[in-house]
Design a protein that fits this description.
single chain; alpha+beta
C-alpha cells in the first residue's frame, strides 16, 4: 500500500523533483458577474487560490487570468506566500490550481455591515 503523503516525502528529500513551487495567492479586486460555482456579492472582494507555479510571478499571472475567466477583476494588491501543498504537482497547467479557489467579500466593507469584528482583521490597502 502506498502512503498518500509519499509524494511529499519524495519531493522533500530529493527523490523526486519538480520545476514548480507551491503558492497561496491572495488578490484584491472587484466581483463583476461570477460564473457558476462561485458565489460572492458584487463589489470589492478578495480571491484566494492555491497553485503550483514556476515562480511567484507566474502565480500572480494565474490568479489574474483565472479571475478574469470567472468574473473577478484583480485591480489591487496581490499577495503571494510559499505554502505546503495538499496534492502533488502536475505538468498540465490546468491541473496546477489546487481545489479551493475562493472569492470573499472585502472585510473592510463588511465591517460597516457588522459582519466582522474589525479589530481581529488584518487588512491593508
Amino acid at each position: 500500500m502506498i502512503d498518500e503523503t509519499d509524494w511529499k516525502l519524495k519531493l522533500r528529500y530529493g527523490k523526486s523533483t519538480t520545476p514548480f513551487q507551491h503558492f497561496t495567492v491572495l488578490a484584491d479586486g472587484v466581483v463583476e458577474d461570477l460564473k457558476d460555482g462561485f458565489t460572492c456579492r458584487p463589489g470589492r472582494a478578495w480571491m484566494a487560490m492555491r497553485v503550483w507555479a514556476t515562480d511567484a510571478s507566474e502565480s500572480m499571472d494565474m490568479v489574474r487570468a483565472i479571475g478574469a475567466k470567472i468574473g473577478f477583476v484583480v485591480d489591487g494588491r496581490v499577495e503571494v506566500y510559499v505554502t505546503e501543498p495538499d496534492r502533488p504537482p502536475s505538468e498540465n497547467r490546468l491541473h496546477r490550481v489546487q481545489c479551493g479557489t475562493r472569492v470573499l467579500p472585502d472585510p473592510a466593507s463588511l465591517c460597516s455591515l457588522g459582519g466582522w469584528n474589525s479589530s481581529s482583521l488584518k487588512h491593508s490597502a
